[in-house]
Amino acid sequence: MRILSFILLSLLLLSEQQEDAHLTRERTRMVQTQIVARGITDPATLRAIGRVPRHLFVPAAQAADAYSDRPLPIGYSQTISQPFIVAYMTELVRPAKWKKALEIGTGSGYQAAVLAEIIDSVYTIEIVPGLALEATARLKMLGYKNIVTRHGDGYMGWPERAPFDIILVTAAADHIPEPLKDQLAEGGRLVMPVGDPATAQQLIVLTKRKGKITEQRLEPVRFVPLKRLK
Questions:
Q1: So which residues are the catalytic ones?
Q2: Burial of 56 by CB count in 10 Å (0-12 exposed, 13-18 middle, 19+ buried)?
Q3: In whole angstroms, what is the distance from residue 10 CA to residue 109 CA?
Q4: Euclidean distance between CA atoms 230 and 220, whole angstroms
Q5: Which of 72, 92, 90, 93 shows the shortest CA–CA distance to 82?
């Protein structure tokens, strides 16, 4: 009986190792075919995307598709963005070790985890209570000590922790909230999808230099709407 138990345990461990190796290969393939191939070159971004286990940030029923080239549902009528968009927005904010980031729209916590692999501290706000609880637990389980989560209205930002070198908004609105502009640090960059949440949106990059904000309009995108607390 003990020998049989040992054999079964060995087979289970071997299965887990094979699954881990398979997922690692899938993640490597994702980085090469979906991200590098589309022009993402920032080494820190590529390393971070290659390290974060995306399959742990989606529901179990979606895990087999975690490394596919598309957004996936994560419950509560929300989605996790496709890998390329996460990498693209990460590169746009020019992450560096010394920087502090604010993320609006934690979702499953994947984007926060990618940022946390690179920068000093990440503050992230989620308006959906269930998602906020799940993301907090997931990030804690994965050992991220430089991410602070909060349930609340991201429109108002996080003034007591401002200013931020990076502000990244993962939901769309028809304008960029003024509180977020106010909380952007000198030399900081803000990236957000702007436009009609039901139709066309564009990624907007704001940069603050000498107290003045400049705007750059980039590719069309599609994000879920930015919600407000009533």
A1: 81
A2: middle
A3: 33
A4: 29
A5: 72
* Topology annotation, domain 2-221: Rossmann fold (3.40.50)
> Length of the chain, please?
230
Positions in the chain short of pLDDT 50 = 1-18
Domains of the chain, residue spans: 2-221
Which amino acid, residue 173?
A
Q: What angle do CA 66, 42, 212 make, to 5 degrees?
A: 110
Taking the C-alpha atoms of residue 12 and residue 188, their distance in angstroms, rounded to an integer, is 48
Let me know: does 191 contact 205? Beta carbons within 8 Å.
yes
Res 22: pLDDT:
78
Report the pLDDT value the prediction gives residue 101, as an integer from 0 to 100: 98
Beta-bridged to residue 191, according to DSSP, are 168, 205
171 CB-near residues (< 8 Å, 6+ apart): 104, 105, 154, 193, 197, 223, 224, 225, 226, 227
pTM of the model: 0.88
